[in-house]
Design brief:
globular
Length: about 180
């Protein structure tokens, strides 16, 4: 999302990691090199981008209503939070390990694959409010909860694997919410 926030001169100063760049990190085969390349290129700039966004939102350019819209927006915050998880030195190592584990278990490919398409489409409605706008980022755990039957299906009846997949799924949901709270509190 380039161009959302501007500095005191009115120049765009904010960028977060977006698809397809984030999607590159989801490649199990080249995970290590892709992770190193993408974070090595993006993360040195992230502290400046993050500060730009916070300065913009807390400036007189945003009234309280607009500020709250930014804080609540799932559309804005998904990639802001993912950017911080990738680049925040206190969170990045654990997030890297979490993403690697989800890839090794094929959770994302399975949960969003053909076998769970109907469930996924039904759960996607949670991501929008009654007016068709993206729901609040803080409500994202409802989506994660809705998708749990699909994650369970990925275990193919293996109860030990099912427990592991649900633990990873819940950990991903918590990481997103904890990082969002830390960013905006």
């Amino acid at each position: 999302m380039k161009g959302y926030a501007v500095d005191s001169e009115g120049s765009s100063c904010f960028q977060n990691i977006r698809d397809p760049r984030f999607g590159i990190l989801m490649n199990k085969t080249n995970f290590e090199s892709n992770w190193a390349n993408e974070t090595g290129e993006f993360c040195p700039k992230w502290p400046r981008f993050k500060q730009c966004l916070k300065d913009h939102v807390n400036s007189d350019r945003c009234n309280e209503e607009t500020r709250q819209l930014v804080i609540d927006s799932e559309y804005i915050n998904v990639f802001v939070v993912l950017s911080d998880l990738l680049c925040n030195p206190g969170r990045a190592p654990a997030f890297r390990n979490l993403i690697k584990a989800t890839l090794e278990e094929d959770i994302l490919a399975c949960a969003f694959g053909e076998g769970t398409r109907e469930l996924s489409e039904g759960c996607n409605t949670i991501q929008f409010d009654g007016n068709g706008y993206h729901a609040r980022f803080q409500d994202l755990p409802l989506y994660f909860e809705c998708m749990k039957p699909g994650v369970r299906k990925c275990a193919n009846g293996d109860l030990v694997k099912e427990v592991r997949l649900i633990e990873l799924w819940d950990e991903l949901s918590r990481a997103l919410q904890d990082t969002h709270r830390e960013l905006w509190d």
